[in-house]
Amino acid sequence: MIEVRRSRERGSTNLGWLYSRHTFSFGEYHDPRHMGFRSLRVINEDRVVPGAGFGTHGHHDMEILSYVLDGALEHKDSMGNGSVIRPGDIQVMSAGTGVVHSERNHSPSQPVHFLQIWIEPDARGVAPRYEQKRFSEEQKQNTVRLIASRDGREGSVTFQQDASLYTGLLDPGGAITMPIAPGRRAWVQVVRGEATVNGETLAAGDGAAIESEATLELRGRTEPSEVLVFDLG
After folding, report:
1. What pLDDT does 85 receive?
2. Looking at the DSSP assignment, which residues form a beta bridge with residue 196?
3. Average pLDDT taken over every residue of the chain
4. 3 state SS of 126
5. Which of 45, 50, 67, 127 has the highest Cβ tally under 10 A?
6. Which residues share a beta bridge with 75?
7. Residue 80, CB half-sphere, CA atoms under 13 Å: how many?
8. CA neighbor of 119 nearest in space, from 67, 73, 65
9. Residue 139 to residue 151: CA distance in whole angstroms
């Protein structure tokens, strides 16, 4: 079974310096039909104008991932980390017992376009931690590359949940097939281009919940596309 969440149906926030689309309920956008999927709680597609950003604020007991599509995102936190996240990078901040951080557009002239993803942890009160890694386009071309997992296998970043995050780049007509283990679910988010997901056509910004399926089949259409795949326990 596949249930599609169309981009146009998502919630939105427009603050002038920030334009955000919310796949699931977030902030002032609340829809009881879309509160998350399994442990996946937030997918926000954010666009921040040059020089602006989220001021210093706190989190706890949440696994927060940032995935930049265009531009550069500057990160600073109370653990002493300072970094710039660019396309190809995956960043995870396990908030645990509490962390304070800020995020800003690193560029004075170009907007930044990124996904902010929250995953609910399966243990609370753990020590906060930060990790960032880069994966090349070659590692993701017409395949799914593991970039985040509970155990850090295959060089992925780690987070506190029985879940795995993959990314893939699809050429037009390119195909990817991956199994879904019994009892698990998948969420697919198309972030660029257009692809079919188990026969359903999804465009950029569309997502899909996959349940009671043994296989996930992704296929590129008329232009290059990029997808994120969440394997959820």
Report:
1. 97
2. 201, 219
3. 97
4. coil
5. 67
6. 83, 103
7. 0
8. 65
9. 20
pLDDT-based confidence at 117, cuts 50/70/90?
very high
The string over 120-156, giving b where at least 16 C-beta atoms fall within 10 Å of a residue's C-beta and e elsewhere, is bbeeeeeebbbbbeebeeebbeeebbbbbbbeeeeeb
Contacts of residue 55, Cβ cutoff 8 Å, sequence gap at least 6 = 102
One-character DSSP codes across 139-195: TTBTS-EEEEESS-GGG-EE-SSSEEEEEEEE-TT-EEEEE--TT-EEEEEEEESEE
Give the span between the Cα atoms of 67 and 34, in whole angstroms: 22
Interval 69-88 mean pLDDT: 96
Confidence of residue 14 (pLDDT cuts 50, 70, 90): very high
On whether the CB atoms of residues 201 and 3 are closer than 8 A, the answer is no
In contact, 104 and 55? CB cutoff 8 Å? no
| pLDDT mean over 86-95 | 97
Residue 80: both structure tokens together: 């002493």
- Predicted TM-score (pTM) of the model is 0.96
CA distance 209 to 170: 20
Eight-state DSSP code of residue 26: B
- What pLDDT score does 51 carry? 92
Structure tokens at 137: 């386009």
* Each residue's pLDDT tens digit, 39-68: 999 999 999 999 999 999 999 999 999 999
What is the distance between the alpha carbons of residues 220 and 194, in angstroms, rounded to a whole number?
7
- Residue type at 167 in one-letter notation: T
Check residue 66 and give its pLDDT. Answer: 98
